[in-house]
């Protein structure tokens, strides 16, 4: 296939890890007879330095006219004092909004050979392999009315509203059931239907959408129980379907169970162009030293192949190359343990390419 990929490296370690992912994609394209065109764009603090804004119109146009966006990270101490609309992080919100991305996908998988490096109980974390799906554009983050207002008797009142429409729930449920079909075919929908009306509707619509997916198993769980089950027996979960706020919290909880932040990819999808990026930030403390772990970004490129281009075989090849490289003992500093071979960012990328 032919595909145009917008490459937005951004700031900090983004500038080091994104080229490693591009390197891997180029080899995959060559081996499997695809043509990927890579179009670079400025984003975040880097764009502020060059043209004065975190998300230049040119970058947005590049993203919109691509088939997918590969993003590194944005932000850093250099741009911290700027006013809200000029912050590098605004670029991410702008991209999500402008591309119409309403589903955030965050796989949390424990690579077995890294289990020993974890400080968590091995019998609990072993076998973790789940996908947290978070609704991104609705719920209490955007519901109206909201605000802070003075109370007549003194003091103030702060309030937000949790709102979901049938259509908003339907489309995120479809993403979850479709994703489950690529995996172990099990969806667990998270809500608080014993207390919240928005959750009552959520449960009803998800159950309704499920009728179109008789091959996928659906269960419902209250969010409080889910938080508990995640630390008690996380391997029971395959796809976790969450609203905006529950997904925000549970995706971080799930990520921490698996250890290094440098290993975990993410995808934001829903519209024509999906956005693929590591879950970690620009890591200014280690930027420019060739020590950042590129695996989260390389795994994000694999998600791009699977979710944006339906190239599941090619995505699996990248996954397997990552596993093989880890099995051979290659480790960046963040996941290093005794007896393993310490390598830099570029060397880790090279090793993964060799093991493709
Ligand atoms: P943001 O606000 O952009 O999410 P943050 O301050 O929350 O940023 P990160 O930039 O993700 O956090 O960094 C958190 C910690 O994890 C830092 O100590 C950083 O060095 C480390 N870290 C992040 N990404 C990587 C990576 N790819 N490889 C190794 N260490 C990483
Ligand atoms: Mg952060």
Structure description:
By secondary structure, the chain is α/β, with parallel strands linked by helices. 40% of the residues lie in helices and 21% in strands. The protein contains twelve helices and 14 strands. The strands form three sheets. Strands 2-1-3-12-11-4-5-10-8-9 form a ten-stranded mixed beta sheet, sandwiched between helices. α1 crosses α10 (295-308). The chain is globular. The mean pLDDT is 96. Bound molecules: adenosine-5'-triphosphate (ATP) and magnesium ion.
Topology:
Elements: E1 2-10, H1 14-32, E2 35-40, H2 45-51, H3 57-64, E3 68-73, H4 90-99, E4 103-109, H5 122-125, E5 129-135, E6 147-150, E7 156-159, H6 166-181, E8 186-191, H7 197-210, E9 217-222, H8 223-232, E10 239-242, H9 244-257, E11 265-269, E12 274-278, H10 295-308, H11 312-327, E13 330-331, E14 341-342, H12 345-354
Parallel strand pairs: 1-2, 1-3, 3-12, 5-10, 8-9, 8-10, 13-14
Antiparallel strand pairs: 4-5, 4-11, 6-7, 11-12
Helix pairs in contact: 1-10, 1-12, 6-7, 8-9, 10-11, 11-12
The structure holds adenosine-5'-triphosphate (ATP) and magnesium ion.
Adenosine-5'-triphosphate binds at residues 13, 17, 73, 75, 261-262, 280-283, 285-286, 292-293, 296, 334.
Subcellular location: Cytoplasm
Binding site for NAD(+): 76-89, 281-293
Site (Important for catalysis): 141, 192
């Amino acid at each position: 296939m032919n595909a145009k990929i917008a490459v937005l490296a951004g700031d900090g370690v983004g500038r080091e890890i994104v080229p490693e992912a591009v390197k891997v994609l180029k080899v995959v394209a060559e081996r499997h007879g695809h043509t990927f065109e890579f179009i670079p764009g400025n984003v975040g603090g880097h764009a502020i330095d060059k043209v004065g804004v975190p998300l230049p119109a040119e970058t947005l146009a590049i993203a919109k006219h691509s088939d997918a966006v590969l993003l590194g990270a944005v932000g850093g101490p250099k741009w911290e004092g700027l006013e809200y609309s000029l912050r590098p992080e605004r670029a991410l919100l702008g991209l999500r909004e402008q591309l119409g991305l309403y589903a955030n996908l965050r796989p949390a998988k424990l690579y077995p050979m890294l289990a020993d490096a974890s400080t968590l109980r091995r019998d609990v974390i072993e076998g973790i392999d789940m996908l947290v799906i978070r609704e991104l554009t609705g719920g209490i983050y955007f519901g109206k009315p909201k605000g802070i207002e003075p109370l007549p008797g003194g003091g103030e009142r702060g309030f937000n509203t949790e709102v979901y429409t049938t259509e908003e729930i339907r489309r995120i449920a479809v993403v979850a059931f479709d994703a489950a079909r690529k995996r172990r075919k099990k969806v667990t929908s998270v809500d608080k239907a014993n207390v919240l009306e928005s959750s009552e509707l959520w449960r009803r619509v998800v159950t309704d959408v499920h009728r179109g997916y008789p091959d996928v198993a659906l269960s419902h769980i209250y969010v409080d129980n889910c938080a508990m089950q995640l630390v008690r027996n996380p391997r029971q979960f395959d796809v976790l379907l969450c609203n905006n706020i529950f997904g925000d919290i549970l995706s971080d909880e799930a990520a921490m169970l698996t250890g290094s932040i440098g290993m975990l990819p993410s995808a934001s999808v829903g519209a024509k162009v999906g956005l693929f990026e590591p879950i970690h930030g620009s890591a200014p403390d280690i930027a420019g030293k060739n020590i950042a772990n590129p695996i989260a970004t390389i795994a994000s490129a694999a998600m791009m192949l699977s979710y944006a281009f339906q190239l599941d075989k090619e995505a699996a090849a990248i996954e397997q190359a990552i596993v093989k490289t880890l099995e051979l003992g290659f480790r960046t500093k963040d996941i290093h343990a005794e007896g393993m071979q310490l390598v830099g960012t570029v060397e880790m990328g090279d090793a993964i390419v060799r093991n493709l």
